[in-house]
Design brief:
9-stranded antiparallel β-sheet, 6-stranded mixed β-sheet
């Protein structure tokens, strides 16, 4: 890790971010970072405890003169998305993130950076450790598993939090005040198939789709970025129709909340047509690269000869599978009628795995309207069931309904305009902020979300803007200094 990170301003925040990024913290495997946070709170001799699901809470009394202010709950999540480039050697369970500075940005070497939501965690840690910052009574809530199920927020019990106002520090544009978010549901299609022999005379190929931007499957779904699973499916459908291609294995995408960047297929072709197949595959690749050149200029499609697989899908199973993936909606499904430029409902065909007689397709369906979420989820269920697959719903979590009359919103709008001489953008986001879930446990709590500018979250292109962190920190301190009275 570049020690230069620790010299950036505000040093208190960047040093905590560097400390945090030295601790492995992939979703579902947060044991090390949970203990790190417990040790941190206990070292400061603050009230510190872990709840029954693994969330960490730390409380700090008000500084002199602000004891009669409402307690503010500061909330961020401990886990991070673990994505890396295929050629990057990195173990998220044992390695700390390797960071570097590039102009006004901090990035990671070949992996996700963890600024989502590590910058929020670091800011809260800096506040808890401070001795010279004015603030009301503080309650820090560090949740687990936000990125892969929100089980930390879902498992938080009512009555644990004491704060009256919640500041969620998980927004990724520094001129936004977020007052609403989408809910989500996992749609998973699975099935089994009997493998059939592939003629030993067939020519084997590995087909690779790579070089796509990827990114956050909610915040960036409106951009129309390439989805490697859908692009691969188009190539396989064309090749099956034209040349009777046989699929032996398929491996595309990864985490359900990341737009898939890469896909690989092991296939076989009758030797009598393999030359024509190679020519057409090249032509189809050129067409796709032209189609995505404005959004994903680095899209690359590679075809290389390998030993022919011995077994593959039957023609019927293959046709049904490819037809289902083609029909499954991916991308924006509906725009909001209530807020300008807000995606209301979307789906990400996140993961496709076919191997050794088993099929699994994973999607994440999001919507700020629960009925819209279930409409699309049920449409996907019908599509996959027509393809002979079984479908299960899981991980259902609610959205966060915007409250334009929020008291804390008025406070933050006024403070932002006074500090930066412009109005903030009051928005709702197409992502799964934990406020929706926390609001079900604490319906009277006034909530708002903001944060520094982070681009490329959930991809190895993730980066956080240095000047934006300075702006975010200044804003946060001013908000706390003028906290509402009881």
């Amino acid at each position: 890790m570049s020690e230069a990170i620790r010299t950036l301003e505000p040093k208190a925040v960047w040093n905590k971010f560097a400390d945090l990024n030295a601790v492995p913290r992939p979703s579902k495997k947060e044991e090390q970072v949970i203990q790190f946070m417990l040790n941190f709170g206990e070292r400061l001799q603050l009230e510190t405890f872990k709840d029954q699901v693994g969330n960490v809470l730390i409380r700090k009394p008000a500084t002199p003169g602000l004891e009669d202010c409402k307690m503010i709950t500061l909330q961020s999540h401990l886990d991070m998305v673990h994505q890396k480039n295929n050629d990057t050697v990195f173990d998220f369970e044992t390695n700390g993130i390797r960071m570097f500075i590039e102009g006004d940005w901090v990035r990671a070497k070949g992996t996700t950076l963890g600024a989502d939501n590590g910058m929020g965690v670091a800011a809260i840690m800096a506040l808890l450790e401070s001795t010279d910052i004015q603030h009301p009574p503080l309650e820090a809530l560090f949740t687990i598993d936000e990125e892969t199920g929100m089980t930390g927020a879902l498992g938080l019990q009512g009555g644990v939090l004491q704060g009256k106002i919640l500041l969620n520090l998980d927004t990724e544009e520094d001129d936004e005040l977020d007052i609403g978010c989408a809910g989500g549901i996992d749609v998973t299609a699975t099935g089994c198939y009997s493998e059939e022999a592939v003629a030993p005379t067939h020519q084997g190929y590995e087909l690779i789709v790579k070089g796509l931007s990827g990114g956050h499957s909610g915040m960036e779904i409106h951009k129309g970025l390439g989805n490697s699973n859908k692009i691969m499916n188009r190539l396989l459908l064309k090749s099956t129709t034209a040349y009777g291609l046989r699929i032996a294995a398929l491996d595309g995408g990864g985490l359900r909340n990341a737009i898939p960047r890469e896909s690989r297929a092991l296939v076989a072709i009758d030797p009598s047509v393999h030359k024509a197949f190679e020519v057409d595959l090249l032509n189809w690749s050129i067409i796709l690269q032209e189609e995505f050149k404005a959004l994903d200029p680095n899209l690359a499609i590679h075809l290389r000869k390998v030993n022919a697989p011995q077994k593959g899908l039957s023609a019927d199973t293959q046709q049904k599978l490819l037809g289902a993936i083609e029909e499954a909606h991916n991308g924006v499904y509906a725009m909001s009628a209530d807020m300008d430029d807000l995606v209301e409902t979307s789906n990400n065909v996140a993961r496709v795995a076919v191997k050794d007689g088993a099929i699994k397709i994973s999607c994440l369906t999001r919507s700020s309207v629960d009925s819209g979420k279930m409409e699309l989820a049920n449409s996907l269920k019908e599509t996959f069931e027509k393809g002979g697959l079984e479908v299960a719903f899981s991980g259902n979590y609610p959205g966060w309904k915007p409250n334009p009359d929020s008291v804390i919103l008025k406070v933050l709008e006024k403070k932002y305009e006074a500090l930066f001489h412009e109005k903030p953008r009051v928005v709702a986001c197409h992502a799964g902020l934990e406020c929706g879930i926390l609001g079900t446990h604490y319906p009277e709590m006034d909530m708002i979300s903001f944060g520094p500018t982070i681009l490329g979250a959930h991809s190895p292109d993730e980066r956080v803007q240095i000047s934006s962190v300075q702006k975010f920190w200044t804003f946060l301190l001013e908000v706390l200094k003028d906290a509402p009275k009881n």
